[in-house]
Amino acid sequence: MRKWMATSKDPALTMLRGVVGVVFFAHGAQKMLGWFGGPGFSATMKGFSSFLHIPAPLALLAIAAEFLGGLALVGGLFTRVAASGIAVTMAVAAALVHLPNGFFMNWTGAQRGEGFEYHLLAIAAAAVLMLRGGGAWSLDRALARPERASPVRLAQEADRPALSRTA
Questions:
Q1: Which residues in 28-50 are b (16+ Cβ under 10 Å) and which e?
Q2: 144 pLDDT tier (thresholds 50, 70, 90)
Q3: How far apart are CA 97 and CA 27, in angstroms?
Q4: Would you list the domain boundaries of the chain?
Q5: What is the 8-class DSSP label of residue 76?
Q6: Is the separation of the CB atoms in 8 and 133 below 8 Å?
Q7: Is the pLDDT higher at 158 or at 112?
Q8: Would you tell me how many other CB atoms lie within 10 Å of the CB of residue 132?
Q9: CA-to-CA separations, 7 to 18, 122, 141, 152, in angstroms, rounded
Q10: pLDDT of residue 32 exceeding 70
Q11: Cα–Cα distance measured from residue 24 to residue 93, given in angstroms and rounded to the nearest whole number
Q12: Separation of alpha carbons 5 and 114, rounded Å
């Protein structure tokens, strides 16, 4: 478990994790709770299943990846798992919904919908977090720290024979 949570104390990872977490929590809250002008859970599930033909269990996973994954990233808990869920959700959204609209976002309103450039950025940011972890000031880092050496453990280690080096 510690290997999944291990991370460096890099503050850049903390900044990336925090921004990605806030963005995806907000998008997830729109879908899950109807916050920030979003449609809410029932309307989102209906849209995913009726319009996009996504099976309900997978739609639920996508909503959870954004809402719970974003929340987990804000705190830096299970960063790699949360980032994986977000990366998969963005890859599916890019492929199923945004790919036909081209690369660029719909700045002028001339396209049918939004392109997939945002999704590529989100996937890249999530990939960095999957590879490097949550960075400094993350719950992962706090939980993955090695246990402090107790006097009993130090004594046990002192009784073990040292491995000899060979040239």
A1: bbbbbeeeeebeeeeebbeebee
A2: confident
A3: 16
A4: 2-159
A5: T
A6: yes
A7: 112
A8: 18
A9: 15, 20, 6, 28
A10: yes
A11: 14
A12: 35
Interior angle at CA 144, CA 157 and CA 12, nearest 5: 130
How far apart CA 73 and CA 18 sit, in angstroms, is 6
| Distance (Å, whole) CA 138 – CA 122 | 20
CB atoms within 10 A of CB 158: 8
Q: Considering only CA atoms, which of 24, 124, 131, 32 is closest in space to residue 75?
A: 24
Q: Which residues contact 62 (CB under 8 A, 6 or more apart)?
A: 48, 54, 89, 92, 93
Helix (H, G, I), strand (E, B) or coil at 6: coil
Q: What's the pTM?
A: 0.81
